[in-house]
Every structure is written in C-alpha cells, then in structure tokens.
Amino acid sequence: MADGKEAILSELENSVKNLQEEAAMEAARKALSAGVSPIDAIEKGLAKGIRQVGEKFERKEMFVVELIYAAEIMSNAIKILEPELRKSKEKRNVLAHVVLGTVAGDIHDIGKNLVRIMLEASGFEVRDIGKDAPIDGFISAAKEMGAEIVGASSLMTTTVSVQKEVVDALRSGGIEAPLMVGGAAVTEAWAKEIGAVYSSDAGSAVSVAKSLVGKGG
Amino acid sequence: MAFGIKRGVRFQILSESDFDRIHWGTLHILEKVGVQVDSVACRKLLKDNGCEVDESKRIAKIPSHLVEEALSKKKTSITLAARDPKYDAKLDLDHSYMTANGNGAVAVDFETGERRPSTKKDVADSSRIIDYLQNVHIHWPMVSSTDKHPSVVHLHDLDASMSNTQKHIMYETGVTLSDAKHLTEIGYIAAGGEKEFRHRPIHSCLQCTYAPLQHDAGVMDASLYFAEHGVPLVFFGMPQPGATGPVTLVGSLVVGNAEVLSALVMTQLHAPGSAVIYGMGNAPLDMRTTIRAGGSPEHAISSAIATELAHYYGMPSCVGVSATAKVPGDQAVLEYYTGCVGPLLAGADLMCGVGLLEDSSCLFYEQIVIDNEIVGSIARLIRGEWADDDTMALDIIEKVGVGKNFLAQKHTMQHLRAGEHFMPDLIDRRSFDAWSASGSKSLVDKAREKTRWILENHRVPPLDADTQKRVDAVIEKAKKPMWGGETKRD
C-alpha cells in the first residue's frame, strides 16, 4: 500500500508540474479510492507540483499562462478531494493566512491573481476577496480567517490612495496584521509613507510574505 | 522545427517596370561599356563565346543574349548543406538565413578588453558562439588567424571554423586559383569525398567584384575552379553610392548588377548549371568622414532592392549589413537593427552578417550575441499574420466572454509555446525594482554574461581524427615562403 500511495502522490505532483489536467483529475480520484489522506494529496502531491511550476516561472523558464493553468488544474483536483477534506480532522499545514484583494475603484486583478497563485503554491492559505473590493471587505475577511497578512493591490494612480484607507481601517478595527501593497502604481516610498510593506511582483510577494511571518525569505 | 526564419511579410519597393528598366539598363552597360576582366582564362572564354574583347584595356563587352542564356542555365534550387543536416539552409525563397560577418583582422579580447590582431583562437571561439546561437544560421570565419603563417591564414580560418561549428561555412578567402584548390580539397575531405561534397556542399565561397565594373584575375580564376568543382558561389557587388557607383541607390544597383551578371555569365559558360547566389552590399561613402556607411538606411534599402532584383532573376539573394560603431551598445544596435530589418522585410535569403563592428573589421564576441537578439525580434516582425479559425479564436472569445481574461486558455498556452510572442533573452522587461535589485544591468552587460556562459559551456563535437589529420596535411602542403623569405609563424 505504501508503494501505491507514493505512486499516487507523484502522479498528483507530476500532473500539475506537466500541466496535464485529465491526469490530475484521475490521480485525485485514485487518491480517494486508495484512502490517501486529502491533506497529503495536496501537500505532498499537488502543491509540490505547483511549487516547481512557480519556480520555473520565476526563472523565466515557463510562461505566466502556464502558471495560471497549473493553478487551475490544482484547484480542480482539490474540488474532487473536497468532500474527504471536509470530513478530515487533519488541518492543512499552512505558513500563514492571507487576505488578498484589489482595492475599491480598481478592476485590474491579473497581478493580484498571480500573487495569490504564488502564495498558495508556497504554502500560504489565501482568501481572495476579488477586485473592486470594498474596504470593509478586507476587515471582515481578515477577522474571519485570523489573517496574519493583508494584501491590497492597485494598478491605477487614481486608486492607490485607497490602500491608505485600507491600512487605516485595519488599525482602527484593531487588526495588527501588516498590509502588503503592490501593483503598477505603487512604489516603495508610498508603502513606507502609509505604513505598509511593498512587494514589486508576484515572486517578491512570496519572499516578503515569508519574512513578515518570520518564515525566512 | 524548420531551420531558418520563415517569412510571410514582403515589402515591395521596386515595381515590375523598375525591374525591366534596371535589367535593360544593365544589359546596355554590359554591351556598350563592358567590364574589365583581368583573368586571361576568362577573357578567352568570353571571346570564344562572341564577346568583343579589347586585350590592351582588358575590357570585355558582353552581348545580352549571353546574359539571358546564363540566367537560364544557372542552378535554381540551392541548399547550403551543413556538417549536421539539421542546419541545412534551403534557399527556397520562403526562408531567410542570417550569417556571421567575416574576415575581420582585429579582435577585442573578451577578458582583457585589449584591441589586438585576431588569432586562430578568436576564429575558434567565435565559431562556437555562432554554433550555439539559434538566430545565426550560416557561419563565416569571422576574423583571420593572423598568428599563423601568412600563406595559409585562410586555411587555418576554415580549419578552426570546421572544428567549432556544425553549421554551413561560407568563406570569402578563395581569391587565387591555388587558394581555391586547397579550400576545395579541405571541403572534399570534410564531406567524405568529392561526390559527397557535390551532393551536399558544406562549404561555399563569397566573391567580391570590384566596383565599378571590374573583375580581379585571381578571384575569377578561383571562381571558375569553384564552379567546376561544385562549390556554390556568391558574387557580391559593392559599389559605394557616390564614390564607386552613382550617388543614387538604383544607379549603384545597376553598376553592381552589371558586375554580378557578368560574373554569372563567365561561370555559366565555364560550368553550366553551377550554383550562383546573387550578392550585393551597397553602402554609401559617408561624405563627411569618408568611411563606408554600413548599417545606414541607404545600405539597408540597397540590400532590399538588390534582393528584389535577385528574385526577379529567380536567384536567391545574399545581402549585406554592418555597423560603423566602435563598441557594442546603442549605436551598434541602431545600425544593426536598421541594416537587418530593411532587407529582411524585403525577403533577403541570406543576410550577412552579424558580430563585427568598425564596418566588418573588428570582432567583439558579445556583439554576436546582441545581433542574435536583434534577428530574433525581426524574425517575429516578418513572420506574417493571417486570419483563420485558429488565429481568429472566435470560439475562445465566446468562451471567455465579457470582462474576463485569456490567460488560462489552452489556446494561449499552445500559441505561446509555438512562438506567437517573441521571448527576448537580453531585452529586460521587468519592473524597475526587479531590474535594479539584480544589478541594473545593461543589454551589453547581459550579452557579456551570456557570451561567457556559451564560451564556458558550449562544446562542438570535433572532426574525427583521420579527417583532422588530412586537413592538417593540406595546410602543411599549402604553406609557402612569402615576401621572398620565411616568417617565424607556424
């Protein structure tokens, strides 16, 4: 059985790594029928695969669309595991909880989505509150999941000021989690000015997030 | 994947009536003015075939029917074969091929930055770089082995090239009959025999004519030998508009055309059906500095219209690009981009060549790598666009709908993998932060890093020991005293 389990885990890993959607679905179904724990299937299978895709993207060996596609394959495979996952008493071993959104007034979410994918691939649990997200949405989501980090993205110069409103609202709501900001209109100086932490792209978001929760990076 | 640059975009600069005018005008010049032919053998050949030859002036006047006959006899399907057949360059009017530049005498040392006479090691190292780069398809010995015995420098150039690239090698050093014999002999050895070489010519020779309207004796004697022995030829006219040709680009094209067509006549009379490529590199004389303006817009457009004329004759073209810049960087990029993009948009079959500065005289290793990136970008520019079910992607547009994105579509991924978007290697498109965090490197810095990587990592399979021994023996046999005495160089 041990051998069979190992084989299924590497099938899960490879199918994500090699962008094979059908193979990923098949491996997820095999994992369920062979009694592989859904947590293992994710952490020792799918997530290992997507981490390698993320690393290749960082090294410019893979396209961003391949990273997104791999993330989609992974999330579809997780949907198959979901019923078992809910029954399971095991908890996923996450680095930290992150709330992520594109600020109110801005509908540009491709960069924010990349940050989500990279964070998830690196072991963070992310609650994505989407684009044009109201300020109180950041606050309530952060409270609900006990977020250790909040991330707010803005592409337009006309909406960066909303990031300041988010950080102010977090603090007056008693949330001490650091705010990570990014997006085309954001600079390091602006982040400092509003008391936030800056990350310039999806790759650096991972190292910034890791250092914020003291997990290296 | 097919070798070379697939092209689907074609500028049309000259019209059909322009071609007729240029052709008829050239015939007029050949009949009325003639060309100077210094080779005794070539003058006899022309005279025996009805040309009016003035022996005291060495001028031959060529009747138009000989030109028309030569055009109908020439070989039309030419493949420049390579040691590794995956690098065979088929001149099919559908692909463009980039060559190295050749025969400089100076190199800037990659480690010390010293500007010094080039050596055999420079030939070997630059050959390895050419072998590695995917946007350079045909090799030329880029510099000369000036550390070798003067009588056999060009044979060492070929030797160093053969052992360091598996791509086709075109040399431009077959300028005497004895050079031609030795170069051909080495080609036969490398190909595994005469029959094998004739079937798959792995070497070819580019010959320059002398503007205006002259043919050097050694060059033409060598050319007849090459034509007879199955070595493909390029005849390359180089009138400089304003100096050795009329200041107008079309006027200089007529001069160059008369030179190329008269050389074609001689080769086809001597060896009917031999392979001849139509070459031209008309860069004007810069009237302020008296330097040849390589990489100028006039150079580019001259190469473009020469390509159109070659195609009018049903011949593949080989046209020039160069740069007057002294160091890699902004000027070199501007000159090489201008010089390459014009002719390639007009459908140049062979574009020569990359990597030398100071108008094809000084080798900078990293310039080869920069030019490779330029050609990559232009390859995308000339690929062509077309509307079919797959490129229109109506089904995908429908599937994604309003307000979403196309990033995660299989269609996106498949096309990116097939090269829909040019993926640069040296051009840095990252954010300011990411760029500055990794050292704020310039394009030249990155080219140097890549060059260093190639030099340290790229290896080319050597010639087998027996072949190498026989090549060495030809070089040894060819060595002869020069300038009335011996030199210390081996």
Keywords:
heterodimer, A: 217 residues, alpha/beta, five-stranded parallel sheet, 9 helices, B: 490 residues, four-stranded mixed sheet, 18 helices, 19 strands, 44% helix, 13% strand
Task: Explain how this protein is built.
The complex is a heterodimer of chains A (217) and B (490). With 217 residues, chain A is an alpha/beta fold. Helices cover 59% and strands 10% of the residues of chain A. Chain A is built from 9 helices and 5 strands, in the order H-H-H-H-E-H-E-H-E-H-E-H-E-H. In chain A, strands 2-1-3-4-5 form a 5-stranded parallel β-sheet, with helices on both faces. In chain A, helix 3 runs antiparallel to helix 4. The termini of chain A are far apart. In chain A, 47% of the residues are buried. The model of chain A has no long low-confidence stretch (mean pLDDT 91). Chain B has a 9-stranded mixed β-sheet. In chain B, strands 3-4-2-13 form a 4-stranded mixed β-sheet. The two termini of chain B are 43 Å apart. The relative contact order of chain B is 0.14. The interface between A and B is medium-sized, with 13 and 14 residues.
Q: How are strands sequenced across the largest beta sheet of chain B?
A: 1-7-17-16-15-14-12-11-10
Rg of chain B is: 23 Å
Strand order of the largest sheet of chain A: 2-1-3-4-5
Total strands of chain B: 19
What sort of overall outline of chain A do the alpha carbons produce when their principal axes are compared? Answer: globular
The total count of helices of chain A amounts to: 9
Number of helices of chain B: 18
Low-confidence sequence ranges of chain B: none
Proportion of β residues of chain B? Answer: 5-15%
Distance between the ends of chain A: 37 Å
**Shape label of chain B:** globular
What profile does the largest beta sheet of chain A have? 5 strands, parallel
